[in-house]
Amino acid sequence: MVLLENDSFLTELTRLFQKCRTSGSVVITLKKYDGRTKPAPRKGHLETFDPADNKCLLRASDGKRKISTVVNTKEVIKFQMAYSNLLRAHIDGLKKKDKKSKSKKTKATQ
Protein backbone atom coordinates (compact mmCIF):
# COMPACT_ATOMS: atom_id res chain seq x y z
CA MET A 1 0.00 0.00 0.00
CA VAL A 2 1.30 3.41 -0.91
CA LEU A 3 0.77 6.33 1.50
CA LEU A 4 0.44 9.53 -0.54
CA GLU A 5 -0.05 13.20 0.10
CA ASN A 6 -3.63 14.47 -0.27
CA ASP A 7 -3.21 16.08 -3.70
CA SER A 8 -1.31 13.16 -5.18
CA PHE A 9 -3.92 10.77 -3.71
CA LEU A 10 -6.66 12.62 -5.59
CA THR A 11 -4.73 12.48 -8.86
CA GLU A 12 -4.03 8.76 -8.44
CA LEU A 13 -7.67 8.17 -7.55
CA THR A 14 -8.65 9.92 -10.78
CA ARG A 15 -6.34 7.56 -12.68
CA LEU A 16 -7.91 4.56 -10.93
CA PHE A 17 -11.40 5.74 -11.90
CA GLN A 18 -10.37 6.26 -15.53
CA LYS A 19 -8.66 2.87 -15.66
CA CYS A 20 -11.74 1.08 -14.28
CA ARG A 21 -14.31 3.03 -16.29
CA THR A 22 -15.07 0.29 -18.82
CA SER A 23 -14.65 -2.74 -16.60
CA GLY A 24 -13.75 -3.25 -12.98
CA SER A 25 -14.48 -1.40 -9.79
CA VAL A 26 -12.81 0.89 -7.28
CA VAL A 27 -13.26 0.27 -3.57
CA ILE A 28 -12.90 3.28 -1.26
CA THR A 29 -12.80 3.06 2.53
CA LEU A 30 -12.71 5.83 5.10
CA LYS A 31 -12.06 5.51 8.81
CA LYS A 32 -10.89 7.44 11.83
CA TYR A 33 -7.14 7.28 12.27
CA ASP A 34 -5.27 7.97 15.49
CA GLY A 35 -1.75 7.56 14.14
CA ARG A 36 -1.07 4.11 15.52
CA THR A 37 0.67 1.61 13.34
CA LYS A 38 0.42 -1.23 15.86
CA PRO A 39 -2.68 -2.42 17.71
CA ALA A 40 -3.16 -1.21 21.28
CA PRO A 41 -2.90 -3.84 24.03
CA ARG A 42 -6.20 -4.86 25.58
CA LYS A 43 -5.00 -4.68 29.15
CA GLY A 44 -2.70 -2.02 30.42
CA HIS A 45 -2.59 1.72 30.33
CA LEU A 46 -4.46 3.58 27.64
CA GLU A 47 -2.63 6.38 25.97
CA THR A 48 -4.36 9.69 26.11
CA PHE A 49 -5.75 10.75 22.78
CA ASP A 50 -6.24 14.43 22.09
CA PRO A 51 -9.45 15.02 20.09
CA ALA A 52 -7.78 17.94 18.33
CA ASP A 53 -5.57 15.37 16.57
CA ASN A 54 -8.41 13.68 14.71
CA LYS A 55 -7.37 12.31 11.35
CA CYS A 56 -9.07 10.37 8.58
CA LEU A 57 -7.52 7.47 6.72
CA LEU A 58 -8.72 7.01 3.14
CA ARG A 59 -7.88 3.92 1.14
CA ALA A 60 -8.67 3.13 -2.48
CA SER A 61 -8.07 -0.06 -4.39
CA ASP A 62 -8.90 -1.50 -7.79
CA GLY A 63 -7.94 -5.03 -6.74
CA LYS A 64 -4.39 -4.74 -8.06
CA ARG A 65 -3.18 -1.40 -6.77
CA LYS A 66 -3.79 0.14 -3.35
CA ILE A 67 -3.33 3.79 -2.43
CA SER A 68 -4.00 5.63 0.82
CA THR A 69 -3.73 9.02 2.47
CA VAL A 70 -4.17 10.57 5.91
CA VAL A 71 -6.16 13.80 6.11
CA ASN A 72 -5.48 16.12 9.04
CA THR A 73 -8.15 18.15 10.81
CA LYS A 74 -6.92 21.41 9.30
CA GLU A 75 -7.16 20.11 5.72
CA VAL A 76 -10.54 18.35 5.92
CA ILE A 77 -12.68 21.06 4.30
CA LYS A 78 -10.31 21.60 1.38
CA PHE A 79 -9.90 17.86 0.83
CA GLN A 80 -13.63 17.19 1.11
CA MET A 81 -14.44 19.76 -1.57
CA ALA A 82 -11.87 18.32 -3.99
CA TYR A 83 -12.91 14.73 -3.16
CA SER A 84 -16.62 15.40 -3.68
CA ASN A 85 -15.95 17.08 -7.04
CA LEU A 86 -13.89 14.07 -8.10
CA LEU A 87 -16.64 11.64 -7.08
CA ARG A 88 -19.32 13.65 -8.89
CA ALA A 89 -17.24 13.60 -12.05
CA HIS A 90 -16.46 9.88 -12.04
CA ILE A 91 -19.41 8.09 -10.48
CA ASP A 92 -21.65 7.93 -13.52
CA GLY A 93 -21.44 4.23 -14.31
CA LEU A 94 -23.88 3.15 -11.60
CA LYS A 95 -26.68 0.88 -12.70
CA LYS A 96 -30.17 2.27 -12.35
CA LYS A 97 -32.82 0.24 -10.58
CA ASP A 98 -35.76 -1.05 -12.57
CA LYS A 99 -38.79 0.90 -11.45
CA LYS A 100 -41.90 -1.18 -11.75
CA SER A 101 -45.25 0.49 -11.54
CA LYS A 102 -47.34 0.01 -8.43
CA SER A 103 -50.26 -1.35 -10.44
CA LYS A 104 -48.20 -4.32 -11.61
CA LYS A 105 -47.17 -5.10 -8.04
CA THR A 106 -50.70 -4.92 -6.68
CA LYS A 107 -52.07 -7.14 -9.47
CA ALA A 108 -49.34 -9.71 -8.82
CA THR A 109 -50.13 -9.94 -5.11
CA GLN A 110 -53.91 -10.29 -5.59
Automatic annotation (TrEMBL):
InterPro entries: Signal_recog_particle_SRP14, Signal_recog_particle_SRP9/14. Its main location: cytoplasm. Pfam families: SRP14. GO terms for molecular function: 7S RNA binding; endoplasmic reticulum signal peptide binding. SUPFAM superfamilies: Signal recognition particle alu RNA binding heterodimer, SRP9/14. The keyword Ribonucleoprotein applies. The keyword RNA-binding applies. Keywords: Cytoplasm, Phosphoprotein, Ribonucleoprotein, RNA-binding, Signal recognition particle. It is found in: Cytoplasm. One of its GO terms (biological process) is SRP-dependent cotranslational protein targeting to membrane. GO terms for cellular component: cytosol; signal recognition particle, endoplasmic reticulum targeting. PANTHER family: SIGNAL RECOGNITION PARTICLE 14 KD PROTEIN (PTHR12013). Component of the signal recognition particle (SRP) complex, a ribonucleoprotein complex that mediates the cotranslational targeting of secretory and membrane proteins to the endoplasmic reticulum (ER). SRP9 together with SRP14 and the Alu portion of the SRP RNA, constitutes the elongation arrest domain of SRP. The complex of SRP9 and SRP14 is required for SRP RNA binding. This is Signal recognition particle 14 kDa protein. The lineage of its organism: Eukaryota, Metazoa, Chordata, Craniata, Vertebrata. The gene is srp14.
